[in-house]
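<amino_acid_chain>
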Amino acid sequence: MVSGKNLDPASSPSAFYGAEVRRLREEKGLSQSGLGELVFCSGAYIGQIEVAVRKPQADLSKRLDAALETGGYFARLYPMVARTRHAAHFARTAELEARAETISEYAPTLVPGLLQTPEYARAVIRTGQPFAPVAEVDDKVAARLERARILAAPTAPLLWMILHEAVLRTPVADGPVMANQLHHLLALAEAGKLLVQVMPFSAGAHAMAAGSIILMTFAEDPPVAYVEGPYSGQLLDDPAIVVRCQRSYDLARAVALSPEASLALIESAAEEYAHE
């Protein structure tokens, strides 16, 4: 999915780890399959680690050290790679967001994390983890807000979001928090950072009704799709599957409200929350 030649080692701990595996493997004159045989895994898995598609494990890091005679180098790097402020199943997707040229998302129940306000994010996280310590919740909120920094960058991706009407109507928090969250969406749209469509209840069943999805395209790399369920998620890079996901997304936005009508509905919902 990502070429080892154009992967920036400084883009993430996983990218640095992978670049070092590639560098030291090539210094030893080993192919990916050759190194895989030495560390008891497939050459394809080594290739995925080198381009930061897959993360290594602690035991594999030790085997890499033995095979490449690094003196424990990868075992020392591993904690840096394993440490992430995002859920393990989402960490790679969060890294890809920062490189994406376009991000298209369908959200069936909640405002997407990339667009959440601090108060809304806190309410969502606290609802899902009611017994989590305050410091842990604070860290998760900070990590979610950190993702949104890409929206202010000169290279910010083009965002196209389809929100089901349930996203607007589900009171995740009190009226003022909900109103502020919806006004935030309106502000992003007015600033030209977001194109949003609402899937109305009246649309009934549609091509994306089965669940949420994030689609990303890149300047030089193939597109990917990310699907998520409770406590799990999957990054899809098989070209045929990604094409099918994109087709379903296109069908969904064809039956969603127009951007103009969507903004009007979001504004109306925001005003209703503001007067609660």
In short: Residues 91-274 form a domain with the Endonuclease; Chain A fold (CATH 3.30.870). The longest strand covers residues 158-164.
